[in-house]
Amino acid sequence: MATRTICFPISGYPYCKEQPVTFTWINGSKRQNIRAVHDAVHTTDPDVSILEVSSASVQPEGEAVSSLRLLLRLDSVAQDVPISTVFEAAKVFEHGGPFADLLTCAPSKVHKDTRLRTNGKLLRYSLEGSEYPIEPHPDSFFEWLYCRALKQFPEKAAQLSRYNAFSDIAAAADSKKYYGDSSRAAAIYVGLAAAGKLPCIDSYESFIAEVYTEPKPLPKSGKSETASKKAPEVSAPAKEIPADESSQSDNANIPDGAQMEHILELPKATCLLLSLAKNAGLSANNSSELAYKGKEFFLAAYQKALKNKTLQINIHKNKITFPMEEHDSGFHAVGVLTRSPAWEYGWKFNYLAENIPGAEKPEVKAKIQKPLTALEHLERCGYKIVQQVVPEKLPPIAVQRMAWKTGEALCDPVVVDFLQFIRTHMQSDGSFSFRIPKGASKKSFTTLSEIAQTWDKMGLFASIVIYPQNIVYELAQNETVRHFLSGKWLELFVEHQVQQILNRYREEQGAEVSVCSNVVLSETASVGSTHELDVVFSINGKFFWVEAKSSSRSIDYGKYASLCEKLNVTPESLLLVNSDLSVEECEGVSYFWNYRVANCATITQELESMIAKQLESTGNAVLSTD
């Protein structure tokens, strides 16, 4: 058996919660071991969205932020340097170090350097004239370097925000003294970002003050910090005593009233509290006031259950339930607490409305109908859905992952040029030579080589040879290959980006979400008139639309603005993603047309901003299906 630590980001001190998981180790198979780790986590909490952050990760975004791949800009070196290299080069031992010459060496050579193992005890770290201690926080220097690198490359950092747990198969507990844990560093960064504390990364001292200095305890907290942080091992559900629901016991490890109040004040709780308040028939002048009333309602019911000892505890399922009722509206529900290390104090909350005959007033029943899905919105606008692709009908996962990796690679302009070159000669037979632009960085060449090799591995090339100055290739004569390179990859990439954000809204805020791609509409009043929408989705009844374009030529941007009117949505709910445009060109198009425009590097940021702004402007209003 082996043990690894799963790291969960939290939006307050210490910004990361660690939980050990035990699994069966398979020699020589890192990816099988990673799968075993993740399976063990999902045994207890299937809702956890976990990312392996190592060079062995099967997830492209995880591999990209491994310590071997994540780069750091230094003042003393011309090129960016991998985190693992900086970490090793900065070590100062009893008889040698630091080894600044390693900063210009390949990572494989760095880790083989005998000086790192023959100079005695590790004393401290030294980088660019500054000294960093190993005590009292041995991991802090690596974590600070890692967070600095993520802040320098926000496009990679944005990928991490979609996950609420991180693993690093290489970070064995007995090797932490000398090797950094990327999973813990990634979790800390996401936690700092959620709390708006990223400026503390700018200096080591402020990083230590924020991440390693315990703040004053919350007022009215009835439990010690140690007790509140305890959680069962992720991999050990079998060791729990099987039991049906039992009444509350005095020693149950559950949140007290003050801790529950803190949980309800988290930003990700707002959406669920709004839903609860509306369904309970509570009224308010604005969404902030309504969310506050939802919090007070939930908290009052929980405190009442604590006082009356009416909490029902299911040890086997790691679940606590308690009754909730609003007498004026006749609303009845069951409050639910479920073990989730990604939340404060290790618990996430939800509620289940009860349909008790005669208990609900007609007007209340109408309020608790589900919000409109994206397709229901389109049907209400008078359209007939001729065709759609739901997630279950997408291409094989290997093809999807290749599309995601393609989208990430196209953050580099050299890769953009290469794909444009391929599309230009796509209908011609024979071999072609793409000349790599002069002055292209080593990083660009590496990214280009990796994506070309990925395409080749999946059969997109009949032949390909990569030289330092050019790439000679012959495209496979296959219509499916042409379709993928012409733009199918972008549709899959966009759909994936949307799905990741929706997953987070659903898991963290309990939002009602829906998504479909390649939706073909027919205007019932005009036979033969159709429209195709690349990706449509909804959050709590709010409709959004994303178009994907992989060419900058002959695009009628005006038709999308016109279609917004027909779809009964504002242009602010439309995002057009064009992989060929630079950031400046995206801003230019958006200047002339009143909707958002992004490329592969800015899609996540624009999606997040669009959704947040629209939900805020509507107060998360829920549209009834009646």
UniProtKB/TrEMBL annotation:
One Pfam family from the record: NADAR-DarT1
Q: What is this protein called?
A: DUF1887 family protein
This protein's superkingdom? Bacteria
InterPro entries, per this entry? NADAR-DarT1 (IPR053913), Restrct_endonuc-II-like (IPR011335), tRNA_endonuc-like_dom_sf (IPR011856)
One annotated GO molecular function is: nucleic acid binding
Annotated spans, Disordered: 218-255
Q: Which organism is it from?
A: Faecalibacterium prausnitzii
Q: Which stretches are tagged as biased composition: Basic and acidic residues?
A: 222-232
